[in-house]
Amino acid sequence: MHSPRASTQHKPRPEEDPIPTLRFGVNYTPRRGWFHSWHDFDPKHAREDLDQIAALGLDHVRVFHLWPLLQPNRTLIRTAAVDQLAQLVDLAAEAGLDVLVDGVQGHLSSFDFYPEWTRSWHHRNVFTDPEAVTAQVELMRTLARALAGRPNLLGLQLGNELNNLVEHNPVTPDEVDHYLDTLLAATREHLPRGRLATHSAYDAAWYGNDHPFTPWASARKGDVTTVHPWVFSGDCARRYGPRSPQVLHLAEYGTELAKAYAEDPARPVWVQETGAPEPHIPAADAPEFARATVRNAAGCEGLWGVTWWCSHDVDRALADYPELEYTLGLFDARGRAKPIANALAETVAEVRAGHHPPHPRDTALVLDCTPSTRSVSGPGGAYFDAWMALRTEGVRPAVVLASRADDAAHLAARGIKEVVQVP
């Protein structure tokens, strides 16, 4: 274990300084009461949780407030709730942790949190209703104004996996693009230079046929590309086995897939959520899964960082979560570090010491798909299997879109010397 204030304390940064990489952190899930703890926020409990996280040698947390508590009416943003969030960011600074704040929650761990003004008799499509979008714009502006002066603020994200909400809020890809552009622009208005404005989507954005949140939106909007490569997506762990190359290299693959869709070859990719959910990853296999995931992702050039999901297990006193949600923490519901926590801390220290450096990727496998055949790039898909076969043979393949496979300038900018077709 590391001293939280000796090893991870960050000095205040001038506004113009870029945020350093390579970063390793955790998505913060409060130990007592989960995110329901925002109803009666207790700084003492939050401080205990954050000190435990910092003691692992991690350098940042991603935090989530609840949309209904922040904005219970379309034209009301609660000052007390915003102040709670600012206090949490300050507590993280005391522990030596930087913070990314997600704004519109939205969706968390199988539960959706809609303000009442978006539901029932007042139903509004949160992506397309002009007044609903305007309300979210004002929320993001308010959070940015409130937090902009904190030197440990990494930035703001629009919300957690907002594409989980499309089932109840039908939307087209063009409408998604407009929504993201509008909220990102508003978020940036009050952020200091160098702070991030981002958005996130779950894996359907990359693997889901005709899903309205597209790979292009993820890879080209916002300041970094965020990926959430979960082992249950496409039934990956059950399909291939929890110790399989397909599972141990999944975050690496997700990083390389994201780079293929970017316009800027230097655009960083953030593995913003990855974890070891039981029973997909048995508890006995979780430490090695964490080691392999971080080491393999660290081998990707342009990696911004890795943020584990999540800090603390959901307490089984809380009902109705899918089974896997109860076991995802680095710490159990009593606050005890699990073996996976120690494995993650040790591996992060190895990477920081330079033991797992990034490797150039001069061979690229061509991805040829349309929005309606995007699933070929997901677990069980022909492209996914071909990429993993190359990786198992010792090749470190990049991903290149078919539309760019003959683009000499693009290939050169990415250091790609050989292009390989899927068998």
UniProtKB/TrEMBL annotation:
<comment type="similarity">
    <text>Belongs to the glycosyl hydrolase 5 (cellulase A) family.</text>
</comment>
<feature type="region of interest" description="Disordered">
    <location>
        <begin position="1"/>
        <end position="21"/>
    </location>
</feature>
<dbReference type="InterPro" id="IPR001547">
    <property type="entry name" value="Glyco_hydro_5"/>
</dbReference>
<feature type="domain" description="Glycoside hydrolase family 5">
    <location>
        <begin position="40"/>
        <end position="195"/>
    </location>
</feature>
<dbReference type="InterPro" id="IPR017853">
    <property type="entry name" value="GH"/>
</dbReference>
<protein>
    <recommendedName>
        <fullName>Glycoside hydrolase family 5 domain-containing protein</fullName>
    </recommendedName>
</protein>
<dbReference type="Pfam" id="PF00150">
    <property type="entry name" value="Cellulase"/>
</dbReference>
<keyword id="KW-0326">Glycosidase</keyword>
<keyword id="KW-0378">Hydrolase</keyword>
